[in-house]
Amino acid sequence: MFRPASRLASLPAPATIAMATRARALAAEGKPVLSLALGQPDFPSPKEALLGAEAEVAEGRTGYPPIVGQKELLEAIAYKFKRDNELDVPLSSLMVANGGKQVIFNAFMASLEEGDEVIVPAPYWVSYPLIAKMFGARPVEVQCREENGFRPDPEAIRQAITPKTRWLVLNFPNNPTGAILERDDLEALARIVRDAPHVLIMCDEIYEHLTFDGRKHLSLRQVAPDLADRLLIVNGVSKAYAMTGWRVGFACGPDALIKAMVKVQGNATSGICTLAQGGAASVLRGGMEGVETMRQTYERRRNKVVQVLRDIPGLTCAMPQGAFYAYPGLQALIGKKSGGGRLLNNDVAFAEALLEEEHLATVPGSAFGYGPHLRLSFAASDEQLMEACTRLKRFVQAIHP
């Protein structure tokens, strides 16, 4: 009889995937489900990606690729860092993985020991603490308050650092809140980690090109180049280039860490699909016009969605500065009952009732370490978003004591 490994006992499925799975099951039953649960761009992958993949086939490059990544893609990544972040990075500081999630998995497996601590500002993407737990580490959550724009308080970060701290994770533009960090924020955090030379810093910059209101993403490595020897940048082509299914993530970090991460990957998945690498190299070297078109579309959708959410009595909603998520607050509605009679004692119950009664799939904020909130992706058509807002408004209006 199969018995799962003990490390899986306290490891739930990521809430984003769990909610999307439940939504698919209801849709299979014939329910008119509308899902805003996953961060899935609704644009097609760029033509450059398809042409790049076709070129790999035409040239017969369908054998095992180098574990670290094909040279052409590594060179395209270095070009991207120079163009977008004004960073000169050697190829030895780069590696390619099966999506950004494998980059994070590789880094944590290569560096964490039992009992280590990983500081994760909350709200956070669900996988950071889950992956850390897989390797025996303890996630240390530091709350980022809504009234502070969901940006981390440097002093709270300082107080969270102990001799056991191994990593500080920074994900900005942030999933799920859309918060970004300005230069002053980055400089303050840099001062903190300079006083803790045993701490590594993970900067997940997967949403770097999706910023709004004229704001531009700034990398911590640009602001504090002296920290490069313990700073890992996580990125990929999934979000800005609408290439989620291509599974191409990449990392930039100190050579020793990259070598260790390559060793992990070599014993797990080896190199990634050559066709996907060719497609990724093409888009990274291409123009940014398509990315800008998507960014403008997301910004327009954000404006509409946030306005509607703010007009629904009982909800609050901070204005996202990046990514493609809204993060409305539910505090005024907790403790009441849904129109179907369910007690909404927390945001999980709220999200489940919303799905069951209005067939709208979202993700409860508690899954991201900060509730009671919901995460709604506005990477969907205008029609879908307005229908989603209509369903949410109808659900809230039916709530009673």
Relevant CATH superfamily of the largest domain? Type I PLP-dependent aspartate aminotransferase-like (Major domain)
Give, in spatial order, the strands making up the sheet with the most strands: 2-8-7-6-5-3-4
Please tally the β strands and state the result: 12
Kindly report the average pLDDT value. Answer: 96
**Helical element count?**
13
**Helix/strand order, N-terminal first:** HEHHEHEHEHEHEHEEHHHEHEEEH
**N-to-C terminal Cα separation, in Å?**
49 Å
How is the biggest beta sheet arranged?
7 strands, mixed
CATH class bucket of the largest domain = Alpha Beta
Describe the structure in your own words:
With 401 residues, this protein is an alpha/beta fold. The protein has two domains: 6-44 and 290-396, Aspartate Aminotransferase, domain 1; 47-285, 3-Layer(aba) Sandwich (Aspartate Aminotransferase, domain 2). Helix content is 39%, strand content 12%. It has helices at 15-28, 47-58, 71-85, 100-111, 127-134, 154-160, 183-194, 220-223, 255-266, 274-285, 289-310, 347-358, 382-397; strands at 34-35, 94-97, 117-122, 138-143, 165-171, 200-204, 231-236, 249-252, 325-326, 360-361, 363-364, 374-377. It has a seven-stranded mixed sheet with strand order 2-8-7-6-5-3-4, with helices on both faces. It has a three-stranded antiparallel sheet with strand order 9-12-11. It has a two-stranded parallel ribbon with strand order 1-10. Strand 3, helix 5 (127-134) and strand 4 form a beta-alpha-beta unit. The longest helix has 22 residues, at 289-310. The radius of gyration is 21 Å and the shape is globular. The model has no long low-confidence stretch (mean pLDDT 96).
